[in-house]
What we know:
- By secondary structure, this protein is mainly β.
- The chain contains one helix and eight strands; from the N terminus they run αββββββββ.
- An eight-stranded antiparallel barrel has the order 1-2-3-6-5-4-7-8.
- Strand 7 and strand 8 form a beta hairpin.
Amino acid sequence: MKKLILALVLGLSTSIAAHDGGHGPRLTDAPVHGGVIAPVIQASNVKLGRNAPLIYKGELLRSDDGTVRVYLYTPKMQLLPLSQFGKKGKAILESKGKNAWDKRELELTASGDSFIGKLPKGPIRKPYNIDVMITDQGKAIFVAFDKLD
Length: 149
């Protein structure tokens, strides 16, 4: 499963970097935990951009100590049990450097009702993006939290 996620990270990295208007439909939901809400789509639909069909909704929380939490919800904002998802996920922190995108990977682990990880140490240029890849019943899903500061 780690190889599948790594392959997705590498395979999607060029199309993900463009961030040309988002992935999945625009959302207007209020965050449950005070984070940022974004659409969750099938990883295979990344190239569809805003036309990618919504499967779930995701919420990203960031703490001052660099801890990130990702919660997954149904389209009606009901918290999903993590038992249907893989125990590990991957995220890519992307920030625009002087000449190119700076990309750093972090691992996410299912714990309680969210996936938890730690942002890489070192300065992060703002705004930045965090792209999350998790497996859902064996299929790769993707959520992009864009233009974070």
